[in-house]
Design goal:
Layout lengths: L1 E5 L2 E4 L4 E8 L7 E7 L5 E7 L6 E3 L7 E6 L4 E6 L8 E12 L2 E3 L3 E2 L3 E6 L1
Parallel strand pairs: 2-12
Antiparallel strand pairs: 1-3, 3-8, 4-5, 4-9, 5-6, 7-8, 9-10, 9-11, 9-12
Length: 122
């Protein structure tokens, strides 16, 4: 499984971005996926996750409904729609695949993308 993120960039506070994570490999549509981010000097943190079929999603509470995760199984692509962006959302955003989504959280899998930079200016 290979994952490639895209869609990052520079945006003003209050703006929106949509990140994409394109997956390759025959099993990508059969596995749960998630989005993480890592800000400078901080650890990698989970943002949201989605089940293989897209019917179950999980969001970390601190997102306050600003981000929406989705996936298009026909395109083997996962998305993260980010609205009302804040300067503190500045980070490298990573997608992950092959993890486990249960008990109210997502446990990361073995597959990571290379990351895409999101910078939010004030």
């Amino acid at each position: 499984v290979q994952l490639v993120e895209s869609g990052g960039g520079l945006v003003q506070a209050g703006g929106s971005l949509r990140l994409s994570c394109a997956g390759s490999g025959s099993t990508i549509s059969l596995i749960a996926m998630g989005w993480y981010r890592q800000a400078p000097g901080k650890g990698r943190e989970l943002l949201a996750a989605i089940s293989a079929g897209g019917g179950t999603t999980h969001y970390q509470g601190f997102l306050e409904g600003r981000f929406t995760i989705s996936r298009d199984t026909a395109k083997n692509t996962m998305y993260l729609q980010m609205n009302s962006l804040k300067p503190e959302d500045t980070a490298v955003y990573y997608c992950n695949a092959g993890g486990a989504l249960y008990s109210g959280t997502y446990y990361w899998g073995d597959y990571w993308g290379q990351g895409t930079q999101v910078t939010v200016s004030s």
